[in-house]
Specification:
751 residues; alpha+beta; Endonuclease, Chain A; 34% helix; disordered C terminus
Length: 751
């Protein structure tokens, strides 16, 4: 498929969804694109046309998130937050995905044979298509902020003002703020014969200053970095609004350059390539797979990678639209950036900072507060008795659904109790991402101080969390914990906790298997699931896996667990094949999967074959999806939809009909090539009948969503569901808040 074929279609295409009875509206942009060319009526299952391009599919997901910022029915400050999220997402895409494409192009520059993505595009074609779509979406966000959100904020009494709009009194207040709090930390850097063009750091906001000095004909260029340790949105006294920091600086620069006859300011910003997994770097130790690797080398490799990231090449140069073209080209030349990477921006730069737009009050401009509730099974615990939670887990497995169930009163409490309980002998945990002041780590430190065996697998190649994870690892080591820094050549993405406790009848293992990180902050905004259990076989399997994580020796048998990269692909493939057999034998069959992303070509091929064999398949995929749904002759039996809302959908749930005896699985892995081949991942079966019923109800709530789900169309566009014919609104996340809230208030608590 050509890049042109993948461009979003015209907006506002309405239809009726036969499955939900809901009318739907397409998410296409307002700009028209060239008509699709050359798309065959019938797509062969083995053809590159059977797959959607990964990067363009991610940008399609970004467009769905952008729709939340555009939605006038959402509270204003939530829309502002989503506009900030879009800025962050575009930054990360430019760093990671477009940066990765640039590296591919560079690596293959001197090779005669061109390589293509699974969907048939060259890296050059992918990069061009991504750049065009990213810039198109970025323009939409900029216009949205300038033309809708800022006027709406002004009408609400919390404007983000232009400096030129300030009254004289307010300008004097900002001058005072500049002199007292900003000017002392500014460092103007001139560019001349004695001073080379300065290094421009990744994602920093910069001011390009052009000065015409008195009695001198030539103009001077000076760069000033906007300090990141000052508020981006400077509050005016008396709650009169906010002013962008860069404008406060720009309009007061005359105090720094009193002899300037003429002074002009423009803004610019650089996005640099985010280097990939350090295992991929070509260093002597790793060129030969059989070569010995220096013990502990991974920390040095990651540290080197972080340093390299700061100086990596440019993948995007954003400049204010009023900057003269001559200066734009000159800055691009100094940065060794291609002109195709140059992006002129109307309005504010660095929109990711809108996520930091914090104002007190205004509850009417926010979502109603959501308060995580304590799981009914845990509500009656004596929180002063460290043994109480273990007694409750022994009564049966507990299924947790965050952020609706409180993370603090479940997982955090579980680990805090383990840290101080005198009968606990050992605690083992995986850390992929955690908070900067992590109470999880504090619990582990307390356990180590009390003489318990503490083993922690700290993944220090988790992108953008490398440095804090290294720091946490060293703190834990100093307190006597056993710390392993990942598995060689594999990123460790498992979400596992193990507590070993000595009880009257012997040693018992308590485990938590989850879909999300041990992170008390993201647990409030990410949707995730987890199970607390002391089932002996599961506990033994998790213990064996921890021994592998710390001892680097693969287990011969993972028992109940699916473990990537060892048996997960094989196990999932076998389950899909079993559904085909059920279908062919006339027994009930079906596959229902909820995940973040679907990209693995082999898994997609298996799903196509299963669908063609009569297996009904429903996929709830939040982000990118490379499978085409509902295409005649290819995937008539496959539905794909995407659920979006105030919380980030993050749980992975897999359901196989199994001839009328459904099997459920949860865990950390998507069906991505990286998850199945290049990461340590775990998926566990859910066997408890009560928990299976809870998961069945969960899946049904997602199915009944008629206002926050987006259905994929055969042409790869997505169409948002809307209530139809006075139908009651059913948004999955709102339904979970209501349902789990009611369960918490119910005095009848089942054990």
């Amino acid at each position: 498929m050509s890049p042109q074929e993948h461009q979003n279609k015209e907006a506002l295409v309405a239809r009726e969804d036969p499955l939900s009875g809901a009318s739907t509206i397409a998410d296409g942009p307002t700009e028209k694109t060239s008509a699709p060319v050359g798309k065959p009526q019938k797509i062969d299952i083995d053809s590159p046309d059977a797959l959607i391009n990964r990067e363009l599919s991610w940008l399609s997901f970004a467009r769905r998130v952008l729709a939340l910022a555009e939605d006038p029915e959402l509270p204003l400050l939530e829309r502002v937050k989503f506009a900030g999220i879009m800025g962050m997402l575009y930054d990360e895409f430019a760093m990671k995905r477009m940066g990765g494409l640039k590296r591919k192009i560079e690596k293959r520059k001197h090779k005669k044979k061109k390589k293509f993505s699974p969907d048939g595009l060259s890296a050059e074609e992918e990069l061009l298509a991504c750049r065009e779509e990213l810039q198109k979406q970025a323009r939409i966000v900029s216009r949205l902020v300038s033309e809708e959100l800022r006027p709406a904020l002004a009408a609400a009494g919390i404007p983000i003002l232009e400096y030129s709009e300030l009254q004289d009194k307010q300008k004097k207040q900002m001058q005072r703020y500049f002199l007292d709090s900003v000017e002392p930390i500014l460092t103007p850097l001139a560019v001349d014969v004695s001073h080379p063009f300065p290094f421009i750091s990744n994602l920093g906001l910069n001011i390009a200053v052009e000065i015409q000095e008195t009695k001198k004909k030539r103009k001077r260029f000076i760069r000033i970095k906007v300090p990141a340790n000052r508020p981006r949105w400077v509050p005016l006294p008396d709650s009169a609004g906010f002013v962008p920091l860069e404008q406060v600086i720009a309009f007061n620069l005359g105090r720094l350059f009193p002899k300037a006859a003429d002074l002009k300011c423009y803004f610019f910003r650089v996005t640099r390539v985010a280097k990939d997994d350090p295992w991929e770097r070509t260093i002597p130790d790793l060129e030969d797979p059989e070569a010995d690797i220096i013990p502990g080398r991974i920390i040095g490799m990651v540290t080197e990678e972080l340093t390299a990231r700061k100086f990596a090449g440019v993948t995007r140069l954003q400049v204010s639209a009023d900057m003269p073209k001559k200066m734009q080209r000159w800055i691009a030349e100094q940065l060794k950036a291609d002109l195709s990477e140059l992006e002129t921006v109307e309005g504010l730069l660095s929109l990711a900072d809108l996520m930091k737009f914090q104002v007190e009050g205004y509850p009417e401009l926010r979502d109603p507060p959501q308060h995580p509730v304590t799981h009914p099974r845990l509500r009656r615990l004596d929180f002063s008795d460290s043994a109480d939670i273990f007694s409750e887990i022994r009564k049966g497995d507990i299924l947790l659904h965050h952020p609706y169930h409180s993370f603090d009163s479940s997982i955090l409490h579980f680990l805090q109790c383990a840290a101080v309980d005198p009968q606990v002998l050992a605690i083992k945990l995986t850390i992929y991402r955690t908070s900067s002041d992590s109470p999880i780590v504090q619990a582990l430190l307390e356990a180590a101080r009390q003489g318990k065996q503490v083993a922690v697998l700290v993944e220090i190649t988790a992108r953008f969390d490398e440095a804090p994870n290294i720091a946490w690892g060293r703190i834990l080591e100093r307190e006597g914990a056993h710390v392993a820094y990942g598995v060689e050549r594999l990123k460790t993405h498992v979400k596992l906790a193990l507590v070993v406790r000595e009880e009257a009848d012997g040693i018992r293992r308590y485990v938590h298997v989850g879909t999300g990180n041990y992170h008390t902050i993201t647990a409030r905004i990410y949707e995730d699931m987890g199970i607390l259990s002391c089932e002996p076989e599961l506990g033994s399997n998790v213990a064996s896996l921890f021994n592998e994580l710390t001892g680097a020796t693969p287990s011969p048998d993972y028992g109940k667990l699916m473990v990537a990269p060892y048996n997960m692909r094989e196990r999932f493939t076998g389950l899909i094949h079993r559904e085909v057999q059920h279908s062919q034998a006339g027994r009930p069959s079906g596959i229902w999967a909820k995940m973040n992303q679907l990209q693995d070509a082999r898994m997609i091929l298996e799903l196509y074959r299963a669908g063609q064999a009569g297996v009904p398949i429903t996929l709830n995929i939040r982000g990118l999806c490379c499978l085409r749904a509902g295409v005649p002759g290819l995937s008539e039996n496959i539905r794909v939809y995407s659920t979006l809302g105030r919380f980030l959908e993050h749980a992975r749930i897999y359901r196989f009909e199994n001839g009328g005896d459904p099997e459920f699985f949860i865990g950390s892995a998507d069906w991505m090539q990286r998850n199945l081949n290049r990461r340590m991942e775990t998926i566990m079966p859910v066997t408890d009948s009560t928990l299976k019923m809870e998961l069945e109800e969960t899946l049904q709530i997602y199915e009944n969503d008629n206002c926050s789900a987006w259905d994929m169309q055969p042409d790869d566009t997505y169409v948002k569901r809307q209530p139809h014919n006075n139908q009651e609104r059913h948004a999955a996340q709102e339904m979970f808040i209501e349902l789990i809230g009611k369960q918490s208030k119910n005095k009848k608590i089942q054990s």
